[in-house]
Amino acid sequence: MMMMGFGVFGLFFMFLFFVVIIVAAVAIISWLFPRPLSTPSQTNSIHRSSYRQTTNTEKEHETALDILKRRYVLGELTKEEFEMLKKDILQSH
């Protein structure tokens, strides 16, 4: 049966059209939401890869400066924030 004169080609182009629509939707969604909010920034990837994970017993004895360093390495703080907070911590002790 001929589908309005296009035959198999019409079916192929209809399938291709839906594939393009789906790919475009995925591209738009990934552009709007590039990565989860919990993912650290890539700027600190060198520091993050060399940073050793702490165990629960080590966390019990963590100082404020240790916590501050960990947050900086994980990308939660900018360099300026880190330096300002570090200065405050060192002045208070």
Low-confidence stretches: none
Sheet having the most strands: none
Output mean pLDDT. 78
Task: Please count the beta strands (DSSP E, at least 2 residues each).
Answer: 0
Task: Outline the structure in words.
The protein is an all-alpha fold and 93 residues long. The chain folds into two domains: 34 residues; 51 residues, no CATH class. 66% of the residues lie in helices and 0% in strands. It is built from five helices and no strands. α4 packs antiparallel against α5. The longest helix has 26 residues. The protein is rod-shaped, with a radius of gyration of 26 Å. The relative contact order is 0.08. The model has no long low-confidence stretch (mean pLDDT 78).
Topology:
Layout: H1 7-32, H2 45-50, H3 56-60, H4 64-73, H5 79-92
Which features does this protein show?
single chain, 93 residues, mainly alpha, 2 domains, 5 helices
Q: Short description, anyone?
A:
The protein is mostly helical and 93 residues long. It has helices at 7-32, 45-50, 56-60, 64-73, 79-92.
